[in-house]
Amino acid sequence: MKIIDMHSDTISSLMEDKNLSLYDAERMINLKILNSSDYFLQCFAMFILYENDKEENYNPYVYCNEMIDRYYEELDKNKEFITPVYTYSDIERNLKENKLSSLLTIEEGGVCLGDISKLEHFFNRGIRLMTITWNFKNELASPNIDLTGINKRTVTSNTTIKPTANIKDGLTQKGIEFIRKMNELGMVIDCSHASDKTFFDCIEYSSKPIVCSHSCVRNIADHPRNMTDEMLLALKKNNGVVGINFCHDFLRRDDEEATIDDVVKHIEYIKNLIGIDYIGLGSDFDGISNDNIEMKDATYMPKILSRLKDIGYTDEEIDKISYLNVLRVLKANLKD
Q1: Sorting pLDDT into bands at 50, 70 and 90, what band is 166?
Q2: Residue 150: pLDDT band by 50, 70, 90 thresholds?
Q3: Which position among 92, 130, 224, 232 has the lowest Cβ density within 10 Å, counted as fewest Cβ atoms?
Q4: CA 298 – CA 37 distance, rounded (Å)
Q5: What is the value of pTM for the model shown?
Q6: Is the C-alpha dihedral spanning 205, 208, 211, 217 positive or negative?
Q7: Would you say residue 301 has pLDDT above 70?
Q8: CATH code where residue 31 lies
Q9: What domain range is 110 assigned to?
Q10: Contact 189/206 with Cβ under 8 angstroms?
């Protein structure tokens, strides 16, 4: 069993305390947990607020670079436990050598400030996947939950939020340029948080498979961050992957605890609609609360796969969900 998790906010949480270590910090993800829980590759997102009125002279580009610095400091201190990957050959080598791998990502395309040279800068620093928007409108595109001008981090935890799918505002002309440049560089396009229109625009303009790294099914949990059937069908045509998010409000829209069975319900729905080849895992650990969810930390990931086994999924199907589908997308995007 091998696991790829397409999205976590662990480094963001470590930025709050310089004394914490990625190895054993009391977080939903740390290296001790990953190395004991069948993980092969963890994506670490640089989550950046595009707008932040709580910090004087705030600049998302500058802060993202500071976060990347912290990421590399942690990897250097823990190089016996985890190895960064930059090319698909790196991934293949670590797979053969059974090494825990780390992939650096950005959650907010606005960190580039609309400047292609800054995108190239981040690629040169090791970024291999970027979420086009978070919950702010930026120079590239629009999100489905728009906090522009509100300046606060409200991920999802409000059961009163209703789907208000943005089918009008998608990629800007600058956004189209970025999509093409990301394809050229070898950087995966991530449409989690993007408006419905942005998602379909990315499908249209990308020459390579995209991902929705941490999203679920809107037809099960009626939330604007989840994907419609039409979006899932388009993702299949693109040969992309959706990573199931463990956030309570993405899994269910009531006050009952979100469980492993809820995760399985979303997997089953996608499998029945578009097939097994387009499903991955994107926990959003350390970016979501573990209140009212069964999946308290990364030790629960193997339990999800065991539940799939119990209900009749084959080893091949489980491997596709746990890592092979994501590997296919990485191979199609990353350069050697």
Answers
A1: confident
A2: low
A3: 92
A4: 7
A5: 0.96
A6: positive
A7: yes
A8: 3.20.20.140
A9: 3-333
A10: yes
Residue written as tokens 């303009």?
205
Q: What HEC string does the chain produce?
A: CCEEECCECHHHHHCCCCCCCCCCCCCCCCHHHHHCCCEEEEEEEEECCCCCCCCCCCCHHHHHHHHHHHHHHHHHHCCCCCEECCCHHHHHHHHHHCCCEEEEEEECHHHHCCCHHHHHHHHHCCEEEEECCCCCCCCCCCECCCCCCCCCCCCCCCCCCCCCCCCCCCCCHHHHHHHHHHHHHCCEEECCCECHHHHHHHHHHCCCCCEECCCCECCCCCCCCCECHHHHHHHHHHCCEEEECCCHHHHCCCCCCECHHHHHHHHHHHHHHHCHHHEEECCCECCCCCCCECCCCHHHHHHHHHHHHHCCCCHHHHHHHHHHHHHHHHHHHCCC
Query: What are the pLDDT digits (tens) for 209-224?
Result: 999 999 999 999 999 9
The number of residues making up the chain comes to: 336
